[in-house]
Specification:
By secondary structure, this protein is α+β, with helices and mostly antiparallel strands. It folds into two domains: 65-201, no CATH class; 229-325, Arc Repressor Mutant, subunit A (Orthogonal Bundle), CATH 1.10.10.60. It has 15 helices and seven strands. It has helices spanning 13-19, 24-30, 47-61, 66-71, 81-87, 92-102, 136-154, 174-180, 209-222, 229-240, 248-254, 259-268, 273-291, 296-302, 308-319; strands spanning 4-6, 44-46, 110-117, 120-127, 162-164, 184-185, 192-196. The strands form two sheets. It has a five-stranded mixed β-sheet with strand order 3-4-7-5-6, sandwiched between helices. Strand 5 (162-164), helix 8 (174-180) and strand 6 form a beta-alpha-beta unit. Helix 5 (81-87) packs antiparallel against helix 9, helix 10 (229-240) packs across helix 13 and helix 14 packs across helix 15 (308-319). The longest helix is centred in the middle third of the chain and has 19 residues, at 136-154.
Length: 326
């Protein structure tokens, strides 16, 4: 299924590409994007193409922090109508809630979850798209944008407790430390940012509740058609599977319904809960197995299996081969 993203996601692409000696227009055309995506921030383009563009640029430039460099100077205005809404939210908690509820207006593929475990809060970000190649650049760009939003509320000197990425560490981390501070971890179970729960109640002194209402109306008007019920379940599967909490009952709790409702509504869309879980596992397992940087026991855990033996049986049933031979 195709997902769309505003071309504003490519803000600073031209500048960083040229600094690296690349032709940004040639790269855009190589992945099939229209040249207009570099000048019209509100143009909706295919998310897969944008992810491939960032990976291609990073590879050709030999710059593993290409996406991060694009994101380190982002502003709220780059988020369009959503940025207007965030600007006038009364606290960081309200701003994060608005991002979770309305991120589809800006990026249909990004899934964000905020988890509070006193005294900490975890902001998780994942891409709900199927790709054979890496999402490193897109993940680091998205995390840099989120960090920039938090910094606007917390101040320029604020630093998170930890920034974690699921991909492996680059050879050099100077740019990561310049953007996020020293607490950056790689080969993590998920992409996320950890900070103090008390940060969420940081007030926004420039918040204007009247403007916030107008911005809310604008964002709502941009949301043409919400995600299908199956898509909502898929997003929760993506977030809950690595935590070992991906059951129909837990998903039902998140959607404020019961398990029978999950079964009935998915059946109406010609699918089922376990079918969606297996589809998601098949989408991501190849990349995990071929990457070779994670032991199969960890891959098993990330895919929500109770034991490596269960993962091995599932993999053999799905692909007719052993995971260790991939």
């Amino acid at each position: 299924m195709s997902t769309l993203i505003r071309s504003a996601s490519l803000t600073n692409f031209t500048e960083i590409a040229q600094q690296c000696g690349l032709d940004p227009l040639a790269l855009v055309r190589a992945v099939g994007l229209p040249a207009k995506c570099l000048s019209d921030p509100d143009l909706k383009v295919d998310t897969h193409m944008v992810v491939r563009l960032l990976e291609m640029a990073a590879r050709d430039a030999r710059e593993p922090a290409f996406g991060l460099r694009m994101g380190e100077s982002r502003r709220l205005s780059n988020l369009g109508p959503l940025g207007l809404l965030l600007r006038d939210e009364p606290t960081l908690r309200h701003a994060l809630d608005a991002i979770v509820r309305h991120i589809r207006v800006h990026n249909e593929a990004l899934v964000i979850q905020v988890e509070e475990v006193d005294p900490l809060v975890l902001i998780r970000e994942e891409f709900a798209i199927e790709l054979s190649e890496s999402r490193r650049q897109a993940a680091e760009l998205a995390m840099a944008v989120t960090y920039r939003i938090l910094s606007l509320f917390m101040g320029a000197t604020w630093r998170p407790r930890l920034v974690c990425f699921s991909h492996s560490a680059p050879a050099h981390r100077a740019i990561h430390h310049r953007v996020f501070g020293d607490q950056v971890a790689f080969n993590h179970e998920f992409n996320g940012l950890l900070c103090n729960q008390s940060d969420l109640d940081q007030p926004n002194p420039s918040a204007d509740p009247v403007m916030a209402r107008y911005a809310q109306e604008l964002v709502t008007s941009k949301a043409v058609g919400g995600p299908s019920f199956a898509h909502q379940v898929q997003q929760l599967i993506l977030l809950l599977l690595p935590l070992g909490q991906c059951t129909a009952d837990v998903v039902a709790q998140h959607l404020d319904c019961d398990r029978r409702t999950i079964t009935r509504r998915l059946s109406a869309e010609n699918t089922g809960f376990h079918q969606l879980v297996d589809e998601h596992r098949r989408r991501i397992v190849r990349q995990y197995v071929q990457d070779k940087s994670r032991p199969l026991a960890q891959v098993s855990s990330l895919l929500g299996f109770s034991a490596p033996s269960a993962f091995s049986r599932w993999y053999r049933d799905q692909f007719g081969a052993r995971a260790r031979d991939a």
